[in-house]
Amino acid sequence: MFKKKENTDLKQIGIVMRYELLKHLRRRRLIAVLAITLIVSSLQLAVPPAFNIAYPEEPKSFAESFLSFVHLLVIICGAFFAGDAIASEFEQKTGYILFPNPVKRVVLVAGKFLAAVISVFLMVGLYYAICFLSILTIYGVTLNQLVHSFAYAFLFLLGVLGLTFLFSSLLKGSMGATLLSFFMLFMILPIMEGVLTITGNEPWYSITYSSQIITEVINPSSVRVEKIVVKDSPITVWVFHPDFLTSTVVLLTYFIATLVLTLLIIDRKEMV
Amino acid sequence: MEAIVIEDLTKYYGNILALDNLNLKISRGHCVGFLGPNGAGKSTTIKILCNLIRPTHGKAYVLGFDVSVEAQNALRSIGAIVEVPEFYLYLTPEEMLSYLGKLRGIGSAALKERIAKVLELVRLQEWVNIKIGKFSRGMKQRLGIAQAILHDPTVLILDEPALGLDPRGMYEIREIIKNLVKEGKTIFLASHMLHEVREVCDSVALINKGKLIACNSVENLEKIFHVQQIEIETLSPANKQQAKKISRFEAAKQVSIHENKITVEFEGNETKRAEFLNFLVNNVKLQIISFRSSSKGLEEIYLRFVKEVS
Ligand SMILES: Nc1ncnc2c1ncn2[C@@H]1O[C@H](COP(=O)(O)OP(=O)(O)OP(=O)(O)O)[C@@H](O)[C@H]1O
Ligand SMILES: [Mg+2]
Q1: What is the DSSP string of A134-179?
Q2: Closest Cβ–Cβ partner in B82, B85, B110 for A2
Q3: Quick one: which of A7, A136, A213, B112 has the most CB atoms within 10 Å?
Q4: Angle at B81 between CA B80 and CA B87, to 5 degrees
Q5: With 60 as the cut, is the pLDDT of residue A1 above it?
Q6: Which residues are CB-contacts of A181 (< 8 A; sequence separation ≥ 6)?
């Protein structure tokens, strides 16, 4: 009746991605995260003058404190844009319409993942742009380290999205997947890192520990490990500074491993 | 070539046996009704055909493609409704169909035209730009039908397509299916509505507890079970003499008369039925108001089969 072009996988990935982006827009999630980004930025800029406190003397200190929110921003974005990406197709039964199409599951995951990456990239990029402009306005300088930091933030967001996609393909419900990834990244891993650090072990393999390179790169410490012995007490305090190369590899590993696992799971998952 | 071939299909959900060595062949261009009680395994079979789930063992082929191995090739020619379909609530029907059409590689100009056509066919043309989140159950079901026929598939696999439709909707979907049959499509129709199956399908496959218990043309099944029924309404009750005359007609196996209604268990094809009507008017001299062969026959077969097996 009408001609059907042979659709390549790549083309289909693009189609899935566009409709997934439309979903983020329509469900107001992009707007919600945009609001969070803008509110946090304005607070960072408005609170010191409001309380008559001067901004830090050094632009680097300003950047470090401003960018300390990136970690949470990426985690929030992950929960918003990836938590239900896969689980919802099964939970909401939309898979009955989507899966009987001649589209590989890999293509669906890739399209959805790209849409999530683009959404988070836009939000984090905006936050960095605000940081860049604030430093330019307040200090009259441009900070090159911001570029490195942004690159690391990008690696972190790939890892976070990978992990969230993995939970989304493992669990039955979107809510469960969203909450699990949020608490894993925001509480469970940081608590585990805290415990390890107290006992003098560097949790170099943790995704959230590695993500500290996002702020570390602004003003890198000259030593990797600080051991502070408190005088006349048995307490030793350890401070670890993540290694850039190791952390880059760790973040990339999280990204690749979780995505591969997601693909393996989703390829076998049955839409009962 | 066979359109659908199901070979020794077995499916366990955990330790629930849903399909038990099911075998079934459907030739191209046929419309086959898929009947069976709740939990018989109809939806399970359909999900396997659409590669939504994998069989525990056995094979299923659509147009020669193994659905578990060459899923993309098989799915290209399939249009399906599975269980109770859900859609993306934040999209309009036009956007939803656009998405699916693009995934299937239909060019945008042709797609636009086709979407307008199928939405009109299922009478959603006035809802084109309303978000699906605002749709009623029956409207979603109509959209389910629209997406199944969107890409003009050669094989349609429909799981209770008339579920939740209003009477007019049910009539319309029957007409849509009849047209598809005329166009030479192959249709596999799971349904509980026997009159619907009787009207549109040329044969039926009956399953119970995951096993095929009968597969034959509706006519043959009725012949085997002598259960075709003809209901006749007359202006005044038939008298004894007339009743006697009717039973003398060879194809009339059993005649019961209740006031103005005559019910005949009948064995014969359409020509025989026409002869019978002629006989009633000209020989028996009945004043007939209505004469119809009822789908009670299929119901009877269904009930007998399901009872016998369980
Ligand atoms: N997700 C599931 N988990 C476990 N068992 C299931 C699941 N889905 C179906 N079953 C079982 O498989 C069998 C067949 O179910 P199926 O849905 O195929 O029946 P059906 O013929 O479509 O019934 P209905 O007419 O009610 O739609 C039933 O015994 C059912 O209990
Ligand atoms: Mg069913």
Answers
A1: HHHHHHS---THHHHHHHHHHHHHHHHHHHHHHHHHHSS-HHHHHH
A2: B110
A3: A213
A4: 115
A5: no
A6: A75, A78, A79, A82, A83, A160, A163, A164, A167, A168
Reported ipTM: the value is: 0.92
Cβ(B170)–Cβ(B184) below 8 Å: no
Q: Please write the tens of the pLDDT for every residue from A61-117.
A: 999 999 999 999 999 999 999 999 999 999 999 999 999 999 999 999 999 999 999
CB nearest to A96's CB, from B51, B86, B152: B86
Pocket lined around ligand 1, Cβ cut-off 6 Å: A 272; B 13, 16, 18, 36, 38-44
Query: Which one, of A177, A210, A21, lies nearest residue A112 by Cα?
Result: A21
Cα angle B263, B269, B272 (rounded to 5 degrees) comes to 70
Tell me how far the alpha carbon of residue B39 lies from the centroid of ligand 1, in angstroms: 5
Residue nearest atom 26 in ligand 1 by C-alpha distance = B38
Provide the whole-model pTM.
Answer: 0.89
Q: How many angstroms is it from B209 CA to the middle of ligand 1?
A: 10
B87, B148 Cβ separation under 8 angstroms: no
Distance of CA B229 to the CA centre of its chain: 20
Query: What is the H or E stretch that residue A256 is in?
Result: helix A244-268
CA distance B280 to B119: 46
- The verdict on a CB contact (< 8 Å) between A272 and B13 is yes
Tell the residue nearest (CA) to atom 3 of ligand 1: B13
User: How are beta strands B16-27 and A225-229 bridged, if at all?
Assistant: unpaired
| From B43, B46, B84, B159, mutation site for ligand 1 pocket: most ligand atoms within 8 A of C-beta | B43
Q: Strand pairing partners for B6?
A: B24, B60
What distance in angstroms lies between residue B27's CA and the mean position of ligand 1's atoms?
Answer: 26
Other residues' Cβ atoms within 10 Å of the Cβ of residue A103: 23
Q: CA B158 to CA B85: how far, in whole Å?
A: 11
Single-letter amino acid, residue B218: V
A226 phi-psi bin (left φ>0, alpha ψ -120 to 50, beta other): beta
What's the pLDDT tens digit per position in B73-85?
Answer: 999 999 999 999 8
Tokens 């880059």: give the residue: A248
The answer to whether A62 and A56 have CB atoms below 8 angstroms apart is yes
Angle between helices A174-183 and A145-170 (to 10 degrees): 140
Identity at A118, one-letter amino acid code:
I
- DSSP H or E segment with residue A24: helix A9-26
Query: Residue B219 is inside which H or E element, if any?
Result: helix B218-225
Encoded amino acid at B66, one letter: D
